[in-house]
Amino acid sequence: MNAFRQEALDVLSRHTGMEPSEIDAVLSRPHKPELGDFAFPCFQLAKELKKAPPQIAEELAEKVAGELELLTEARALGPYLNLFVNRQEFARSVLHAPSALAEDIGKSSEGEGRVIAIDFSSPNIAKPFHVGHLRSTIIGSTLYRIFASLGYECVGINHLGDWGTQFGKQIVALKHWGEEKDLEDLDALNDLYVRYHEEEQKEPGLADEARDWFRRQEQGDAEAIALWEKIRETSLDYFKMIYERLSVRFDHYTGESFFNDKMDAVVDRADSLGLTSVSEGALVIDLEEHGIDTPALLRKTDGATLYMTRDLAAACHRHESYKFEKLLYVVGTAQSLHFRQLFKVLELMGEPWAGDCMHVNFGLVQGMSSRKGNVIYLEELLDEAKRRAQEYMSANVDKRPELEDEEAVAEAVGIAAIFFSDLGKQRIKDYNFSWERAISFEGDTGPYLMNAHARIAGIIRKCGIELDPDADVTLLEEQSAHDLVSLISRYTDALREAAKTCEPSILAAYLLDLARALHSGYKELRVKGEEKKIAAARLLLLAVVKNVLASGMKILGIKPLEKM
Ligand code: ARG
Questions:
Q1: 119 lines ligand 1 (CB under 6 A)
Q2: Pocket test for ligand 1, best of 133, 257, 331, 346 (most atoms within 8 A of CB)
């Protein structure tokens, strides 16, 4: 769209005296695609010139009419001046672009040399995944791919919760009620952890024991460390198996324990800056003057460090190691206070990059937990997704193709259902998960996108002609063809907007729009049996749509399949 939009900006700038950048900020799209490609609102000028907006639109239409090249028409529509692109030229520029059929469609290089560090997933060792960890995994990995597609260098960090007082509790539980082999069994470890909390109600002395074990661990006691290492390994093996299944990767597994030897330095620095004080025996940073009522806790009465202490050390370490332009923490809204405190303390410590840290928060999910509480058993969840996908497809999709890999398709559909039900909504919204809604091939779902993609693949396979990348696309005259070309041209903008707001739902909504436009265009854009040149032009259009769908779906963590 670039050269076309640029012409609109230039011509409007000449006749309004506004800067092209000002125009860029207000130039939108008409609410119906047949009403043009750009809409320039005349309200602001109306105020300045003390004239009615429709009159300004009329006058502008007349003035710019003679100066259009890539644009063909300027039409006043109420308070707007609508501009139309030359559709033939436009189709050529979009569908004959070098990347139109290539894997790098939509990619750009604006992020080159700029680092975005993303802290995501970050589950707690020896505890099961929480639904929040799943959301973080989905949103975080998607943001990673969105930024990467814009050329940024991304650093994916799993800040495992692998240090802290809970290990004292875990060890106490093991000692009292567990056996050696439980160390290798995540379910057994979880049960022990739950049991600890039940027993602690009856036997408060256990809490002292647990504190003592964690203190030993922090001091490097051999037995405590050996037990902790085993527990960590058992959890990590499980998490890695799940990540593999979700195709999620991290550049670093630097969990909380990694900062064990890096905390003293930050605490000392905060001390020497005079930021700390002692409150009820604990070392804290009071933030009341800065509008945060709860102080940040750095050390407990017994000297033990906390989540906050480790996050402070982690932020400093990350800045030193990765020189990030932005550090994103993809964590639920429930931790807002923690991150406000963290960022404020970094600022008070004089870190000039404190403002580059951002809490990418998200809301709660209901209806996904499989057993008790908010806990989800990911493996069960993924198995259920697969089973339900298989069921749905055999019940609802007629004329299913012969598939060699039925299982793999069901697995991909199941994962698409889970990912999209999360990414399809603004992240800060709470939502209710429903299997029926998530799996359906109709409506706003991941499987709907997969279906659109596979359907084009089917057309390409069965249309009887070869794909010609040089097909004469100026023959595409239908409104539905123009709508699709226009959507294709906006793919990179959707990625940019999603990155700017850290909002994958923008990309999800864009892909749904594309799939819907396709859905309403199929009839008009038949390939099979049409006149040769028309068929070739339509086939190329569909192939490029398919390419955008595939690219965008992969970014959302959804597998584009050829058959399903
Ligand atoms: N492990 C934490 C939890 O489960 C999330 C960690 C998020 N990242 C961070 N740097 N604090 O609540």
A1: yes
A2: 331
Give pLDDT tens digits for 436-478: 999 999 989 999 999 999 999 999 999 999 999 999 999 999 9
Contacts of 2 (CB under 8 A, 6+ apart): none
Crossing angle (nearest 10°) for helices 446-462 and 406-423: 130
Q: Which two tokens stand for residue 206?
A: 């256990």
Residues in CB range of 508: below 8 A, 6 or more apart: 420, 423, 424, 556
Ligand 1 contact via 329 beta carbon (within 6 Å): yes
Tell me the domains of the chain and their CATH numbers.
2-85 (3.30.1360.70), 164-232 (no CATH), 415-424+433-556 (1.10.730.10)
Q: What is the pLDDT of residue 129?
A: 78
Start-to-end C-alpha separation, the chain: 33
Tokens 């490029």 locate to: 544
pTM of the model: 0.94
Query: Is residue 133 annotated as part of the catalytic site, yes or no?
Result: yes
How many angstroms separate the CA atoms of 45 and 16, rounded? 8
Cα separation, 299 vs 40, whole angstroms: 58
Mind listing the pLDDT tens digit for each residue in 319-346? 999 999 999 999 999 999 999 999 999 9
User: b vs e for 14-47, b when ≥16 Cβ sit within 10 Å of the residue's Cβ?
Assistant: ebbebebeebeeebeebeeeeebbbbbbbeebbe
* DSSP one-letter code for 260: G
Closest CA to 126 of 182, 178, 189: 189
Return the DSSP state at 204. T
Contact 211, 304 (CB under 8 A): yes
Instruction: Specify the 3-state DSSP secondary structure of 487.
Output: helix
Please report which helix (H) or strand (E) contains residue 432, including its range: strand 431-432
Tokens 């004329």, residue located: 399
